[in-house]
Automatic annotation (TrEMBL):
InterPro entries: Homeodomain-like_sf, HTH_AraC, HTH_AraC-typ_CS, PchR_regulatory_protein, Tscrpt_reg_AraC-type_HTH
Entry GO MF terms: DNA-binding transcription factor activity; sequence-specific DNA binding
Keyword Hydrolase annotated: no
Species of origin: Sphingobacterium spiritivorum ATCC 33861
Pfam families cross-referenced by the UniProt entry: HTH_18
Protein name per UniProt: Transcriptional regulator, AraC family
Keywords: DNA-binding, Transcription, Transcription regulation
SUPFAM superfamilies reported for this sequence: Homeodomain-like (SSF46689)
Listed Gene3D superfamilies: Homeodomain-like (1.10.10.60)
Domain HTH araC/xylS-type: 230-328
Amino acid sequence: MENPRTQIIHFFEIDTLPTTESPVQNYQTKVLDNDLGQFSTGYIYDCEEFVVRDYNFSYKKDYKHHFITKGNSYIEISFLFNPIAVQDTINTKPNTYLPFHSYVYYTPPKSAVQIEFKKDVAYHNLDVYVSFSFFNEWADTNPAIKEFVRTINENQYAVLFDRGIPLNKEIFSLLDEIRNCELEGVSRFYFIKSKILYLLSILFKLGEYETVVPESAIVIWRKEEIHILQKVEEFIVRNSEQFFTITFLSRKFAINEFKLKKGFKQLYGKGIFEYANSVRMEKARHLIEQQDYSLKEIAYQIGYSTPSSFSVAFKNEYGMSPALFRKQIMALSAM
């Protein structure tokens, strides 16, 4: 019988290689429970173009996972939902992966990898493995992507936007759509592929911001601080019709204003006011689509004192006035 360390190595070796001989087209789960920890892998989709895996695991003691990579022709996109930062070393190069961030990288065959895990931490990441073809068209439009592809072609370890991209509400929503997709066959293939391409476009757009932010502006947050920031976000969403000041939120959640503003932007990709406005506009859009309320009533429901100020905010968010948006919805409904 294999020892626990070997079991873990084999468990993850299998899971980083696509089962193209027998493609997975519906969510399946595999588990491992041994003396070192508990591990679960969700197989969301397998095909030659892309592979999607959902990992949940925890270790019963501090553990360093050592392994040598095997050959595959995929770029990995990791979406990390871990409560703490993860550190690894790839071919002697140290790396740090922040909580609630995404990383795009390529690890060549026969690379020496060491990953450090802490005891009793609930690790969770959703990984998407894509073929090189996903990046070819973008390489000519973005210098960072072009350099990333060049490094891969030289069969070297490569990271795109090495400080990572903070996960935001839009990314969370797309990942949920992939994870919960109930379509089958070719419809499932094109649905998931389209979401992956959309995710990449978002990451590339956010990555443009990352390249101009000085490294000193990036802060690694403690688990307790991340929890507070998540509570702030939940509070804003639940009370989207109200407008809160930074000072009010800082006092309510016992976090200083600097950490609140900086941490929220780093975690959700938008400042507090911008994020709250997006939540309000999304709610307004749904109300307009339902066609049960006048635009004046909707403006008051989401917290605006005048329809004109609501109209300006809506147009800034969606590029058209709420009146024009409703007109288009009604035209589509009549078809």
